Amino acid sequence: QVQLVESGGGLVQAGGSLRLSCAASGSAQAKSMGWSRQAPGKQHELVATHRMSGASTTYADSVKGRFTSSKDSVKNTVSLQMNSLKTEDTGVYYCKVIIESVAYWGQGTQVTVSS
User: Fold this and answer.
1) What is the pLDDT of residues 68-79, one digit of tens each?
2) Are 114 and 12 in contact (CB under 8 A)?
């Protein structure tokens, strides 16, 4: 059974920064790792996705240039550095990992950006 443990998040003023981290348990290699978010009254949005076999990362247009996701393929960890945060970035952020074609989600961590 794969478990994801998220850390980070919290309350920050607009323009500030936060960092989220996620670690997947177990020895199976992840095929994909990334982050998504759920804001109040909005659709669930995929924020960043890594293909573990390559170096490319896909970002949502809404976070490009502000968010940077990094991964460690050996440790099955992924982090999300969020800079220049905006009030519209407020929401619950989820780590998502795909291992052997099964998707696993973290418990979610709240990010609140105040004006």
Assistant:
1) 999 888 888 999
2) yes
CB 7 within 8 A of CB 21: yes
Separation of first and last alpha carbons in the chain:
40
- From the list 65, 66, 29, the residue with the least C-alpha distance to 50 is 29
- Mean pLDDT score, 77-98: 96
* CA distance to 19, 23, 49, 113, per residue, from 6 (Å): 11, 7, 16, 19
Sequence-distant contacts of 101-106: CB under 8 A, at least 24 apart: 101/31, 102/2, 104/2, 104/3, 104/4, 104/24, 105/4, 106/4, 106/5, 106/6, 106/22
